[in-house]
Write the structure tokens for this entry.
Amino acid sequence: MTIDEVGEFATVRRWLSAVGSHWNRSATDADQQRRLEVLRRYCEYVERDPDALVANLLRETPTGQKIWLKRRRAEMARIDEFEAVVADRDARAGREAGNAVRSFFIHNGVALTATPLR
Amino acid sequence: MEFKKVIGLRRSIRYYQPYRPVEREKIQMILEAARIASQAVNSNWAKAIVVNRDDMSEEDRNALKTPTTTAQLDLAPTWIFWYGDMTAPSRGQTTLKKLVDVGALNPSHGWSHAYVDNVVWTQVLTPIMSDPGTLAVVTAVEAGLAICQAMLMAVDLGLGTGINAFNTAKAKEVFGVPDHLIGLWVQLVGYPAESPDGGGQRPREAFESLYFEGRYGQPFERDPEVVKDLSADGMLQPVAPQPWRQEEVRALARMFGLPE
């Protein structure tokens, strides 16, 4: 999957648009490309496309959408693993990559976060 | 701090200085404030377990989180787990008679030991205790009054605080909580890393849509002079968001390595 192909997924378009409107600023092209590249690498790492990643964590119920909590925990653990792989040479880069992936999930309605650095 | 300002400055703080512990005496003051809150039948409905974040294993800490109570738990150094004690009314016969003895409940208002024994105990407290729905509501409300005082005391002491959901089943196992206590909230306490005013007072529904006079639906008219006085006293403060809030949140997220 190329970066351009990643950018075509509905969940990715929703993510980029929501990040821009939440923070009230458009990402620079370079920032956007960096985020898409991280997500592309994550998709490759877990062997799923962006829409499938989100769909795997949400389920429709008569009262609305719910999050599969066990799957969410597993996804958080996979993001931590991915972060560690990227952080092999640069801890900050690892956290930034992990947070780009987390941001993708968050702005698609899946509440998750990272352990704060302290 | 002036009382009105304490009320005005209370926010649910979600970013704490993780490295700065809270002095033990301040935690005691918070608990002391809770203990003397208004409590039905003068029984203590609220019970609390104080836990230092760093005394817990990472596994337990993570298991106590819910999907929306996450980073703030990792950041706050002290956690106070609040519980409602469903056995509180069972002490009512004794605690009410104590109120009669100390001159709080008086014959001028119809109170006596006989009234407590023959009427209140049999007609009020026993039915409450035998109806789980009513008992849960009363317990939660009464414990909530104590928790409110605990929060305001934390603000008065210059601390950040906020109440959050937690995994009550896990807490029961980790802290050995007995069955008669209902898990309510975990109150986080620490020194705020964000601005203590949290970027402004939270937007609320209009005063007139909440409070009525005479009958439901007829708004209690809000006097602008009172609003002006309360603003001058610091109880009513600028409503969020302050213009700098987004930048503050972004800076905090980057400082703590949290997602944006």
About this structure: The radius of gyration of chain A is 14 Å.
